[in-house]
Amino acid sequence: MTRPLVLPVAHPAENAPVRVCVLGDLILDHYVSGTTRRISQEAPVLVLEQEEEEYRPGGAASVAYLLRGLGAEVELVGVTGEDAHRDVLLGLLRRDRINCTAVVADPDRPTTIKHRFLGLAAGRHRQQILRVDRESTQSISAQVQEHLAALLESALERCQVLLISDYAKGVCTPGLLQHAVQAARRRGVPVVVDPARVKDYRPYAGATLITPNRTEAGMASGQRIDSPQRAITAARVLCSQHRFHAVLVTLDAQGMVLVEQGQGKHFPTQAREVYDVTGAGDMVLAAVGVCLARGMTLPQAVPVANAAAGLEVQHLGVAQVTWDEVQRALGAAAAAAPPQRKHLSLEQAAALAAELRGQGKQVVFTNGCFDLLHAGHVTYLAEAKAQGDVLFVGLNSDESIRALKGPTRPVQKLPSRLAVLSALEMVDYVVVFGELTPVKLIEAIRPHVLVKGGDYRGREEEITGRELLARWGGRLHLATFVPGVSTTKITETIRDVAA
């Protein structure tokens, strides 16, 4: 049996350019806005007094447009008609420097266009009062499909991620979809699919990640999704049936759930005022694509996509959101998260550290068990904080301490260690990790300075994460070693006194 494409390990520089290929149904969105004050005398319908008119990219073109806002270079593969609406759409895309050389003109079909009429009544927000679509949902011909496949193969040679945006307008045929998945697999390129609202996901089989919404996931899995846990169950069904590496189900106000290799996790969303949900799914696809192209893991990418979608729904129609805006939103949420203001998840720490680096702050990282906090710890942490502006501390979980130091440790369980460590003024943020080493934390936070104890002097090659620093120009600092104090010695003294 063919296995799903596993995410490649990539570690691009912080601001390295990323290039994303987008395949799918191209749509032109047409907005006609005005004011509604009266009912027509000809029929019982509203009269819209037109004031504004605007065209925007939609469908897969919207994904490309949003990718540009997030800072990615984009190669777009799709089909339009051979008509005036094609010229309008390509003009919008080229204005944003989106590569449209793989956009094929098919004289046998129209360019898909959605006319949206929005009315303002009583001084409130504009709302849609009518939508008129002009489209063909017939599958593209075998000749056009073959042409697109060749153009896609060429684009994949230059891209780090393939995004597929399927709006069921006839471009994403089963044959082309499987050709795209297999072509990407051969090159080690992750494939992320925003599926059409269909029951049969077999054409997407083998994709790295699929991003259905609640309704779509329920339809395809045959599951009733009324909670995050049920969404996890549905995602596991889809992974098993179609060999997806992972499934991300979007749940509107309930956030998102990610199932990756059988493991499920719920990512709540931050409450925001929702103005227009148009483009939220496209933004999730675009944000995940940029994150994967930057070398982030899926658990790191999902909070970014969650925040980006939250910002998107605050705008009317599809609107670009920048990478810096997303990072600021994540950083603000992480810094203000009650009730454990200093206790961050790995994903929150990664987002906040990126925001701090963007502000020019020096990020410092160290780690330890911090079982029985003593003078040596306090001196060490004060010196660590002095190396920069913000100090992140990785704290071993109880399980990892037992694996490292034996069944009698830790003396203090995690809640106590976390509370004491967080109370120290020099400690800005604490991130608990369950692995034997903090390498994942270091990769996520990307500190300017990695601090370790002075007892490593002369054996620096043993320090976890030392070799990672060169990737982003960080440095290693060995703190002053305070002799004669340690948790082991303290526990031995207590035993002697008790005896």
What does this structure look like?
The chain has 499 residues and is α/β, with parallel strands linked by helices. It has two domains: 19-39 and 47-321, Ribokinase (UDP-N-acetylmuramoyl-L-alanine:D-glutamate ligase), CATH 3.40.1190; 343-498, HUPs (Rossmann fold, 3-Layer(aba) Sandwich). Helices cover 36% and strands 24% of the residues. It has 16 helices and 19 strands. It has helices at residues 60-69, 84-95, 142-156, 174-187, 214-221, 228-242, 280-293, 298-312, 323-336, 346-358, 375-385, 398-405, 414-422, 439-445, 469-472, 487-498, and strands at residues 19-24, 26-39, 46-59, 73-80, 99-105, 112-120, 127-134, 161-165, 191-194, 209-210, 246-250, 256-260, 263-267, 343-344, 363-368, 390-396, 429-433, 449-452, 475-478. It has a nine-stranded mixed sheet, with helices on both faces. It has a six-stranded parallel sheet with strand order 14-17-16-15-18-19, with helices on both faces. A four-stranded mixed sheet has the order 3-2-6-7. A hairpin with a 6-residue loop joins strand 2 and strand 3 (46-59). Helix 1 (60-69) crosses helix 7, helix 3 (142-156) packs parallel to helix 4 (174-187) and helix 9 (323-336) packs across helix 10. The longest helix is centred in the N-terminal third of the chain and has 15 residues, at 142-156. The protein is elongated. The N and C termini lie far apart (63 Å). Mean pLDDT is 86; it is low at 1-6, 8-14 and 271-276.
